[in-house]
């Protein structure tokens, strides 16, 4: 049983955004938000993964809180590592458009697709 299902839902939504290049271009870059979303940007996902939770630093501690098991730990940690790779290569000061256009971004999208698919299936 997950202690914080709302936070799990937030994580799944961030993974969905990170896994969808079309969404990133429309929302993060063009600021054309779909119904029900007032604002979104890459920075929101980064803060959730790296600052608001321990998903980037100690994801195993999140089992039972917002993650189900070690499989989810590995998937989410991989997303964080891919984002870290982008930051290591390009720094922390690019625009969302610059980040999503860098060569390393495809690895972020791939990792997020895998994590999103698994967690969405687990939550269904």
Automatic annotation (TrEMBL):
Annotated organism of origin: Leptonema illini
Cross-referenced Pfam families: DUF7945
Cross-referenced InterPro entries: DUF7945
Protein name per UniProt: Uncharacterized protein
NCBIfam families: SCO4402_fam (NF047838)
